[in-house]
Design goal:
Order of helices and strands: HHHHH
Distance between the termini: 45 Å
GO molecular function, one term: RNA binding
Number of domains: 1
Structural class: mainly alpha
Keywords: Repeat
Protein name: Putative pentatricopeptide repeat-containing protein, mitochondrial
GO biological process, one term: RNA modification
Radius of gyration: 13 Å
Number of helices: 5
Number of strands: 0
Pfam family, one: PPR
């Protein structure tokens, strides 16, 4: 796709992050995160997908770092962060 001059859009990147979350592929998820940073494709939707991916891949601290960098947090951001803590048994 990229060889033909087409880059992935936000929907594609979030889909890849979701797949990484499901299979626990931290290496690929980190690569997608780096790509998003290089291309300046990082909004709240992408941030919550990254939070979910890092949490499900065992890196709760990185999920929290991303959460802290989100300017205006909406309900989805908060629910995702709560879910991240719950996955790691830190829900209450």
């Amino acid at each position: 796709m990229q060889r033909l001059g087409f880059g992935p859009d936000l929907v594609t990147l979030v889909g890849v992050l979701s797949a990484c979350s499901q299979v626990g592929s931290l290496k690929t998820g980190r690569s997608v995160h780096c790509y998003m940073l290089r291309r300046h494709v990082l909004d709240r939707v992408a941030a919550t997908a990254l939070m979910d991916m890092y949490s499900k891949c065992g890196v709760l601290a990185r999920s929290r770092e991303i959460f802290e960098k989100i300017g205006k947090k909406d309900l989805v951001c908060w629910n995702t962060m709560i879910s991240c803590y719950g996955i790691h048994g830190k829900g209450g």
